[in-house]
Amino acid sequence: MEINAKKGLLRPDILFSTIYEITPAFLLERGIRGVVFDIDNTIAPYEIERPTEKMKAYLLALKESGIQVAFVSNNRNDRTVLFNEELGFPCYCNAKKPFPGKTKQAVRDFKIRPDQAVAIGDQLFTDCLSAHLARMEFFIVPPIRDKRTWFFRLKRRMERPFLKSLKKYPEYARKGENRQ
Ligand SMILES: [Mg+2]
């Protein structure tokens, strides 16, 4: 997909403040029919085991507008299964992102093309890279709550140059850079 080739594998396509800014209308207008979500720090912080009412309402609104939803997480099976219990979306755990295998599988299982899908996550070196390797668009949201370990701090520091010049939605939309 030329958008990603131009921007580079580690350049997200759009930055949003939270997932709730990414509305069904916006996705449909962009030709998106399926969304692959990261869970941890994208939808919910690590310590939240089950989705809140707000999270559920948002995810179900996507589904009701005809957009397919799946979870692709590097986290363990028990975490993802519990989080997904009430939602029942296709769920792929131990995904080993940045390897794109499970992300690609999720899109194949949607029965749509990669350019009709988007991945949404909080991390460049796992979520963004796996999405672009799967030839999909990638929307980034800032992590809800980081683990305060040296490893996470280092990772965030390494991400900074890639995020610096990124335009934030809705500035992005105002500049008429939508695909259509
Ligand atoms: Mg994450």
Q: Can you offer a commentary on this structure?
A:
The chain has helices at 2-7, 24-29, 53-64, 77-84, 101-110, 124-133, 150-163, 171-174; strands at 14-15, 34-37, 68-72, 91-92, 117-121, 137-140. It has 180 residues and is α/β, with parallel strands linked by helices. It has a single domain (2-169), classed as Rossmann fold. The longest helix has 14 residues, at 150-163. The two termini are 14 Å apart. The model is unreliable at 1-5 and 176-180 (pLDDT under 50). Magnesium ion binds at residues 38, 40-42, 121-123. Magnesium ion (MG) binds at residues 38, 40-42, 121-123.
Bound compounds, each kind once, are: magnesium ion
Q: What is the global morphology?
A: globular
CATH-derived topology: Rossmann fold
Counting helices, strands and paired strands, the structural category is: alpha/beta
Q: Give the C-alpha Rg.
A: 15 Å
Query: What is the residue-averaged pLDDT?
Result: 88
**How many separate helices?**
8
Regions with pLDDT < 50 over 5+ consecutive residues? 1-5, 176-180
Task: Specify the biggest β-sheet.
Answer: 6 strands, parallel
How many domains? The number is 1
What's the oligomerization state?
Answer: single chain
Question: In CATH terms, what is the architecture?
Answer: 3-Layer(aba) Sandwich
- CATH class reads Alpha Beta
Number of strands: 6
Strand content range? 5-15%
Span between N and C termini? 14 Å
